[in-house]
Amino acid sequence: MVIYALNAQKESLRTRPGRNKMIEIGRLCMKTAGRDARKKCVIVDIIDKNYVLIDGETRRKKCNINHVEPMDKVLDIKKGASHKQIVDAFDKIGIKVKESRKKEKPKKRENN
Question: What's the angle, vertex CA 52, arms to CA 25 and CA 76, rounded to 5?
């Protein structure tokens, strides 16, 4: 009996009922795990029941839904929106997104 109760408790922690209802394209979220933790992001695409594609203050990447905390705002973006469109949507709600710069390749030195 005790083992059954512990297993049921673990299941309820994993699934978090009601949370999947909030997962939708355009939903503003906050990352809770990894190097992008505590940064705001938006759901750009839903890959399957466990993974979403996020972008915003974070890197654009596939993310487990257990690693994002949905917030109450929904941005007006389309599925698969570009980074530029997401930056514009974040600007409308007053969130600054730092633009990433591409690394320049070092110049080859000539041998004298």
Answer: 15
Amino acid sitting at position 5? A
* CA dihedral sign, ordered 65, 69, 74, 78: negative
Annotate 51-67 with b (16+ C-beta within 10 A) or e (fewer).
Answer: ebbbbbbbeeeebebeb
Spell out where the chain has E strands: 27-31, 40-46, 51-56, 61-64, 68-74
CATH of domain 19-92: 2.30.30.30
Alpha carbon distance 55, 26 (integer Å):
10
Domain ranges of the chain: 19-92
- pTM of the entire predicted model: 0.71
Predicted confidence pLDDT, tens digits, the chain (112 residues): 455 544 544 444 455 555 667 889 999 999 999 999 999 999 999 999 999 999 999 889 999 999 999 999 999 999 999 989 999 998 998 888 877 666 677 777 777 6
